[in-house]
Amino acid sequence: MKIEILGTGCAKCDSLERTTKAAADKLGVRYELVHVREIREFAKRGVMFTPALVVNGKVLVAGKAPSEAEIARLLAAAAQ
Question: Which structural domains are found in the chain, ordered by start?
């Protein structure tokens, strides 16, 4: 599973990265996590607000940093 965090490196973006990593580790899924900081890449994916969570090329969350439980639910669904 490829997980991308889109964000410039603000506190919310870094928090989303940490929370996503924790959720994925607890689920025990195999993943590659990349933090994309290039604004042009955000636009390519249609993301206007950060942070954003992208899993396997699909934007699942944009403009907020959801709870670890919510992220775990999203990752579990994407892994199926």
Answer: 2-79 (3.40.30.10)
